[in-house]
From TrEMBL:
Name of the featured protein: Carbohydrate ABC transporter permease
CDD domains registered for this protein in UniProt: TM_PBP2
Membrane topology per record: Multi-pass membrane protein
Membrane-spanning intervals of the chain: 20-42, 78-101, 113-132, 144-165, 186-211, 271-290
Record keyword DNA damage present: no
Length: 305
């Protein structure tokens, strides 16, 4: 029997069913660790230490979050984390895009050598001690700008944006140049709007890195509590909680968030789960708005038109 136009064979249907089942299984495997962390963070710490917590808390309580968030430094460090993420991402994306546009221009004779120099930085660096001494000479120690300036231009970011720019038809830029537009105006009015998917992809990478970074705080600003970030404060809380459970007084507990039988204790496991949720939530909230650009940037950024 000859298949009519639009009809699908049994093999195609079976492939679609298998593909859907595989993707559902992959999604479940991906989401389960986060769902389990959420359940543990909402469960009483001593009860969770018995095990058996999967997707639903057995003894619901909000004390783990109260214990983490009651630290006075948390909200100050949250402000620093938000500032370094927003400012660092904006400056890094803009500067990386400018460099990418420069090295993508065929009239720039040194573009290959400059690109090679950037690529070499992906494989070699000066090391921890020379980097620290350089930051010290630049007066970046105990400064907010130590979070921004060292990573203002990244080779990987430049490669993604440059690849996308090279896919833009040259006729668009040439038309603007004939109309009297200079390079900076072409970059601002034409290149940046057309590169939105690539810029969003780089912005997501940079924002996640800025938000999750804590080691630079430890190296350069550990002596200045006013410049501490959320990740660094949560790391210190975890170190304090490690080794043994921490007991609190009943007066310190938010009574409305506790179930009957809940204890006034936390454990390293409960603090670790709570920290994971607190640190991941902002990125999870932002990602859906950038997802379509992220997919576009990853698929089109490496293909020339």
């Amino acid at each position: 029997m000859k298949l009519t136009s639009g009809a699908r064979s049994a093999g195609d249907v079976m492939f679609d069913i298998g593909n859907v089942l595989f993707m559902c299984g992959l999604m479940a495997v991906t989401l389960y660790p986060f769902a389990n962390m959420l359940a543990v963070s909402l469960n009483d710490a001593m009860d969770a230490s018995r095990g058996g917590i999967f997707l639903k808390p057995r003894l619901f309580t909000l004390y783990n979050y109260e214990y983490v968030l009651r630290e006075a430094s948390i909200f100050r460090s949250l402000t620093i984390s938000v500032l370094r993420t927003v400012i660092g991402t904006a400056i890094t994306v803009f500067c990386s895009a400018m460099v990418a546009y420069t090295v993508s221009r065929p009239e720039y004779l040194l573009r290959k050598w400059v690109t090679l120099a950037f690529i070499l930085t992906m494989y070699f660096n000066g090391g921890l001690i020379p980097t620290y001494l350089l930051h010290k000479e630049l007066h970046l120690i105990n400064s907010f700008w130590v979070y921004i300036i060292p990573g203002i231009v990244g080779a990987f970011n430049i490669i993604i944006i440059r690849s996308f720019i090279e896919g833009i038809p040259d006729g668009i830029n040439e038309s603007a140049r004939i109309d009297g537009a200079g390079d900076f105006k072409i970059f601002m009015k034409i290149v940046l709007p057309l590169c939105t998917p690539a810029l969003a992809t780089v912005a997501l990478f940079v924002a996640v890195w800025q938000w999750n970074s804590w080691f630079d705080v430890f190296l350069y600003n550990s002596s200045n509590p006013k410049l501490s970030t959320l990740q660094y404060e949560l790391m210190k809380i975890l170190q304090t909680a490690n080794g043994s459970s921490t007991q609190a007084t009943v007066g310190d507990v938010l009574g409305g968030g506790r179930s009957a039988g809940a204890t006034n204790q936390v454990t390293p496991t409960s603090i670790r789960a709570t920290m994971t949720i607190v640190a991941s939530l902002p990125i999870i909230l932002v990602y859906p708005f950038l997802q379509k650009y992220f997919v576009k940037g990853m698929t089109l950024g490496g293909v020339k038109g």
